[in-house]
């Protein structure tokens, strides 16, 4: 690196023009405070392309001179360090003289100050430089690059640019600040700052990407709203098209097709009626013949019935006469047997009393039986009276009570028994048996009432089901099922309808097993998946329909007849027992039964001899009467059947004749009307396009709408939706949607590209900084080597810890360079731990400072140090001066005026400044003291 030999100032601050020698190792600038020592250092810094200290600038100094231009010119050493010319500092700038002139021209340009630079071989005066053209002058960046090739590295430039007071206070830096200074001086901090700037840029890009993502989300939300509006618009258009299609195609075609189907059904019905009319005429002829035969048969049966009735009455009279002859004789024989039994015990008082007691007990038993039967008859009579005034079979008490409670709560309902009528009496027993357990199931009309009804059923402990899932009976029921034998007037539980529809009616068990599945016989033998059992219900317990009421009445009447017969028999037995009791009591009172037997022996014998003949006559008369009665009943039943058949045939004949008459009146008119409608249908068909009425098209319409009524309902629903719904009717929404889709897609693609680019940049920066960590470690090793060698020159043991450098932001921010010094073997001390003296502090700072500019590849160099001897005693000043001499570098030092001459002892050149006097424009000239030294040998 080159050394400074002299410097010339022209119109710099308050210096008019002066030339100062700098050809020495140590140049000391002495003077009072404010005498221009720092001004001189800033002139050197400006000439070298550096920034001034303390916030000052070259513009400030040029403005103070109040001249059009300010000049700075220095002559520097350019002698080679070896025998080769390429070892000259400015050889790369094609300057090979032993001296090189460095010049800086500061001129006012458009109201602002600008500096331009120039270098030339030899010692060139300012007057010669004035003649140079402007194109030969260099800018600041070009100038700095040229000085860098001459040995003024960036590290030395940063050291020279240190502020006043920083050079001698480096030991006061913290380890972290010292490491930052090392990186800054050697140019690494700038690289790290660029990496950090790249990181900030990536974060900014990430923030921009996040903002773009939010904007994209907003755009997507807006797109979703537009899509919703577009869907509404498309639905609206679809509804319009559907309405138009319904009214122009679907409804007319289906109406035409339905009319065609109706006409086809009517034509088939007319054909069927015509065939049925022919069958009806044949059936009428048969019925007329049958009526004639039935009338003749009725006349014959009436004659036979009259004869049979006459014979039956005669036989009944004969039976009554025979019973009238037998009864007195039978009573005499019975009386004789009673007297004989009494005669056997009348001699024994104890047996006689026992006989009386037995007869009394029999009388009492007969009386009790009579009263029991009488009570049963009265209850049956009351039940019969109730049935005569009732329309349906009575309900049990618990069902009646629960129905009344439901009505009080306003819960609409009905029982299963109230909803079913058995229309086929042949299957009444089967239906009554199957439905017995479901009679009093409660069917709720409103399913919402189920909770309240269940609560009431729980309170009343009603043991039958409550059902809310009910349905009316289907219009088409399976033939030969038990459901076909019933008429259902109200909804029934769904499960009950399925059960009744699944039961097949079969004539007997053999047919049931042959058919398989679930079946029942007319005698109520039911077989299901669980097996077979009889569910027979006595007629007196029938419940369903008016026939059940009649069956109950008939059953009660039969019971009344049975009770009447039983009461008559009990009364007869009661009379006999009382008569025997009276005879026994008479015997006990002295009446002798043996005497009466003897007295009436002839009468009793005659009765015994006649009783067998009379009984045989009565039996023969009874048999004759029974035969005639059976014949009479048979003839009566035949007559009733003949009359019933006659009435049925007559009614059928009347119905057929009425239908035939109506057919004759209506058939031709209906046929003509059908022909007219058929012609209209053909004309209407010609108005439709062929594709509308193609079988496939009509099949699709049938599958979608079923019939024209459903199509009209759909048309009404579409019109109602168009009128009441909220629709989008603006056709521009499609274009807006297309534009927004493109916009959102572009934003998404741009965001993805930006995110991918930022991620790639992040990876590249991380990888580059990872590799640059090795450069940082090399810089630290270089600085450690420099300060260690400088410490050896100063007689100080210097040790520096290797900082922890990793590719991590936190690790780099927390990295520290800890340096330890050992003066005179007194132990290690740190940078600023308070254990070093003032001179040792200055030496530490100088070691740290010179270590920043020391370069093995380019020896020499110069340093600007502002007041390094401040506050030092004589001994420490000597130590500092000895260190400066031992470093073989050029130093420009400043010091205030002091009485201690030791500060000037190491100086080769001493420059003495003075303050500008008030009222004068220019400052006094600078005094020069130069030590004579032997010329250096190269």
UniProtKB/TrEMBL annotation:
Basic and acidic residues bias locations: 663-675
Gene3D superfamilies according to UniProt: P-loop containing nucleotide triphosphate hydrolases
Ranges where the record places region Disordered: 648-687
Classification via InterPro entries: P-loop_NTPase, RecF/RecN/SMC_N
Keywords (A to Z) from UniProt: Coiled coil
Top-level taxonomic group: Bacteria
Coiled coil: 281-393, 546-587
Domain RecF/RecN/SMC N-terminal: 14-914
Keyword GTP-binding attached: no
Biological-process GO terms, alphabetical: DNA synthesis involved in DNA repair; double-strand break repair
Protein name listed in UniProt: AAA family ATPase
């Amino acid at each position: 690196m080159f050394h400074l030999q002299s410097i010339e100032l022209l119109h710099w601050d308050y210096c008019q023009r002066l030339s100062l020698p700098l050809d020495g190792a140590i140049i000391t600038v002495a003077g009072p405070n404010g005498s221009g020592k720092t001004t001189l250092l800033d002139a050197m810094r400006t000439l070298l392309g550096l920034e001034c200290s303390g916030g000052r600038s070259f513009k400030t100094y040029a403005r103070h001179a109040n001249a059009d231009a300010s000049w700075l010119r220095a002559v520097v050493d350019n002698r080679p360090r070896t025998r080769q010319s390429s070892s000259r500092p400015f050889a790369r700038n094609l300057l090979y003289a032993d001296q090189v002139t460095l010049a800086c021209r500061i001129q006012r340009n458009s109201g602002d100050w600008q500096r331009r630079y120039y270098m030339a071989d030899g010692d060139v005066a300012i007057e010669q430089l004035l003649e140079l053209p402007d194109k030969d002058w260099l800018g600041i960046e070009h100038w700095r690059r040229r000085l860098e090739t001459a040995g003024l590295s960036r590290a030395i430039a940063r050291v020279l640019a240190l502020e006043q007071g920083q050079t001698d206070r480096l030991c006061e830096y913290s380890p972290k600040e010292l490491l930052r200074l090392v990186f800054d001086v050697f140019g690494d901090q700038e690289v790290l700052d660029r990496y950090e700037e790249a990181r900030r840029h990536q974060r900014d890009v990430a923030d921009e990407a996040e903002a773009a993502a939010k904007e994209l989300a907003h755009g997507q939300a807006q797109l979703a709203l537009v899509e919703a509006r577009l869907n509404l618009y498309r639905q609206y258009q679809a509804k319009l098209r559907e309405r138009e299609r319904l009214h122009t195609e679907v409804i007319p075609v289906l109406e035409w097709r339905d009319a065609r189907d109706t006409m086809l059904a009517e034509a088939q019905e007319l054909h069927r009626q015509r065939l049925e009319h022919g069958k009806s005429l044949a059936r009428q002829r048969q019925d007329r013949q049958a009526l004639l035969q039935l009338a003749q048969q009725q006349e014959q049966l009436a004659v036979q019935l009259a004869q049979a009735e006459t014979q039956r009455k005669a036989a009944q009279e004969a039976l009554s006469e025979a019973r009238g002859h037998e009864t007195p004789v039978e009573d005499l024989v019975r009386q004789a047997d009673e007297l004989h039994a009494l005669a056997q015990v009348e001699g024994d008082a104890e047996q006689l009393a026992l006989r009386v007691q037995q007869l009394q007990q029999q009388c009492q038993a007969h009386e009790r039986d009579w009263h029991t039967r009488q009570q049963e008859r009265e209850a049956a009579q009351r039940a019969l009276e109730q049935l005569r005034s009732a329309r349906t079979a009575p309900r049990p008490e618990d069902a009646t009570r629960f129905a009344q409670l439901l009505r009080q709560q306003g819960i609409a309902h009905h029982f299963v028994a109230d909803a079913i009528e058995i229309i086929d009496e042949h299957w009444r027993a089967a239906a009554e048996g199957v439905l017995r357990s479901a009679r009093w199931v409660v069917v709720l009309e409103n399913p919402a009432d189920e909770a309240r009804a269940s609560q009431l059923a729980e309170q009343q402990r009603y043991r039958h089901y409550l059902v809310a899932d009910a349905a009316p009976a289907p219009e088409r029921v399976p033939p030969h099922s038990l459901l076909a034998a019933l008429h259902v007037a109200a909804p029934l539980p769904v499960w009950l309808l399925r059960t009744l529809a699944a039961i097949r009616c079969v004539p007997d068990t053999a047919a049931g097993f042959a058919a398989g599945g679930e079946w029942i016989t007319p005698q109520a033998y039911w077989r299901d998946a669980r097996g077979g059992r009889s569910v027979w219900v006595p007629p007196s317990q029938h419940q369903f329909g008016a026939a059940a009421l009649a069956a109950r009445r008939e059953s009660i009447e039969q019971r009344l007849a049975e009770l009447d017969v039983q009461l008559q028999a009990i009364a007869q037995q009661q009379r006999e027992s009382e008569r025997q009791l009276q005879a026994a009591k008479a015997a006990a009172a002295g009446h002798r039964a043996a005497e009466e037997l003897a007295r009436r022996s002839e009468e009793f014998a005659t009765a015994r001899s006649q009783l067998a003949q009379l009984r045989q006559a009565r039996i023969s008369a009874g048999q004759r009467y029974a035969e005639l009665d059976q014949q009479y009943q048979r003839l009566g039943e035949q007559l009733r059947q003949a009359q019933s058949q006659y009435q049925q045939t007559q009614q059928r004949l009347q119905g057929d004749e009425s239908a035939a008459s109506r057919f004759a009146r209506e058939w031709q008119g209906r046929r003509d009307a059908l022909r007219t409608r058929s012609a209209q249908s053909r004309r209407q068909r010609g108005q439709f396009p062929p594709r509308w009425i193609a079988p496939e098209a009509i099949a699709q319409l049938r599958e979608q709408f079923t019939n024209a009524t459903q199509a009209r309902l759909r048309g009404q629903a579409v019109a109602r939706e168009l009128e009441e719904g909220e629709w989008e009717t603006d056709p521009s929404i499609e274009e807006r949607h297309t534009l927004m889709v493109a916009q959102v897609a572009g934003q998404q693609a741009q965001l993805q590209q930006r995110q991918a680019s930022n991620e790639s940049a992040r990876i590249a920066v991380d990888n580059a900084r990872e590799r640059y960590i090795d450069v940082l470690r090399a810089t630290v090793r270089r600085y450690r080597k420099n300060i260690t060698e400088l410490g050896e020159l100063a007689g100080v043991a210097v040790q520096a810890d290797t900082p922890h450098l990793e590719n991590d932001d936190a690790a780099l921010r927390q990295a520290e360079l800890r340096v330890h010094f050992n003066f005179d073997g007194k132990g290690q001390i740190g940078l600023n731990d308070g254990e070093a003296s003032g001179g040792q502090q200055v030496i530490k700072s100088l070691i740290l400072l010179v270590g920043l500019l020391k370069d093995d590849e380019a020896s020499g160099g110069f340093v600007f140090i502002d007041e390094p001897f401040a506050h030092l005693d004589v001994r420490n000043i000597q130590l500092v001066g000895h260190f400066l001499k031992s470093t073989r570098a050029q130093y420009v030092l400043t010091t205030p005026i002091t009485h201690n001459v030791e500060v000037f002892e190491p100086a080769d050149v001493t420059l003495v400044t003075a303050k500008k006097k008030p009222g004068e424009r220019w400052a006094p000239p600078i005094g020069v003291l130069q030590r004579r030294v032997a010329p250096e040998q190269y």
